[in-house]
Amino acid sequence: MPEPDLEDDELELIGRITTASNATFLGSIGGIQVVYKPMVGESPLWDFPDGQLAHREVAAYLVSQALGWGIVPRTWMRRGPLGDGMVQLWQEQDPTQSAVDLVAADQVPEAGWKRVLEGHDETGRTVALIHEDSPALRRMAVFDVIANNADRKGDHVLAMPDGHRFGVDHGVTFHHEHKLRTVLWGWMGDALTDDELEGVERLGGELDGRLGSELAELLSAEEITAIAARCAQLRRAGRLPAPSGEMPAVPWPLF
User: Fold this and answer.
1) 76 exposed, middle or buried (CB, 10 Å; 0-12, 13-18, 19+)?
2) How much is the average pLDDT of 67-86?
3) Given CB 3.0 to 4.6 Å as the disulfide criterion, which of 94, 118, 152, 251 pairs with 161?
4) Which residues of 127-156 are buried (b: 16+ CB within 10 A; e: fewer)?
5) Which of 200, 191, 193, 208 is nearest to 68 (CA)?
6) Helix 135-147 to helix 194-206 angle, to the nearest 10 degrees?
7) How many degrees, rounded to 5, is the angle at CA 48 between CA 47 and CA 50?
């Protein structure tokens, strides 16, 4: 059988993903499962008053591709049963893996994990927010700085069976003002690796070419300029930043 045309073949709805804050559906295009977020189902946000969160999801995919790290699953705009929206290839994560976790504060593994913060659960027990110390997740932390991701929750990191880590839910990204809220603070202050610096450099160069033209269909000129500024700042600093500004450093809820 021929491969389905993901751009034009019928998008059939299978069910609604009720844990999402905006209208989000599981769908199928010729047997290939996808996530579909119609623009008519987007909830208004005080700091993203212009909406078009679907455009930001597609922009996140384009930036991920330019970095060369495959962080965001293939994502594109198309028409569906409820109108134009974002469509993303569904990813079946490994239920036995967890790249971000909450554990008792005295049970943080000695190696392979980063402690982000401590707090208390509903029983008063001291718990720690931790994430794995892996190159794949570090690249996602760099991506979040560039994308100015305002909502990197633990459940927005998909742990794949082969060790790859996908990031999803990028509707609140690319604001021109500082909005970074993430659970991936374990490397703050650490020097960027050569691979990370090369990715940032590559992205910065592509903003002046085809990537910049593609992003201009999705984001404002001010937001694209801010992406270039964040890339330049990362290159100058040569290290992952620490939290700054008046915004909370982590999203809520964490998961």
Assistant:
1) middle
2) 97
3) 94
4) bbbbbbebebbbbbbbbbbbbbbbbbbbeb
5) 200
6) 30
7) 135
According to DSSP, the residues that pair with 79 across neighbouring strands are: 84
Structure tokens at 1: 């059988």
Q: How confident is the model at residue 49 (pLDDT cuts 50, 70, 90)?
A: low
pLDDT at 93: 96
DSSP 151-215: -B-GGGEEE-TTS-EEE---SS---SS----BS--TTTTPBPPHHHHHHHHHHHHHTTTHHHHHH
**Closest C-alpha to 68, from 145, 142, 133:** 142
Under the banding of pLDDT at 50, 70 and 90, the label for residue 249 is very high
Q: Which residue blocks in 100-153 are alpha helix, DSSP H?
A: 135-147
Token pair listed for 21? 């804050």
Q: Which of these, 35, 36, 17, 42, lies nearest to 171 by C-alpha position? A: 42
Handedness of CA 163, 32, 172, 231 (dihedral sign): positive
> What is the rounded average pLDDT of the residues 230-250?
95
- Angle of the 135-147 helix axis to the 53-67 helix axis, nearest 10: 130
Per-residue pLDDT at 51 exceeds 70: no
Angle between the N-to-C axes of helices 53-67 and 194-206, in degrees from 0 to 180, rounded to the nearest 10: 120
Give Rg (Cα) of the chain.
18
> Quick one: which H or E segment has residue 129?
strand 126-132
Orientation angle between helical segments 135-147 and 221-237, nearest 10 degrees: 130
Q: What sign has the CA pseudo-torsion 178, 211, 60, 83? A: positive
Asked if 99 and 157 touch (Cβ cutoff 8 Å), the reply is: yes
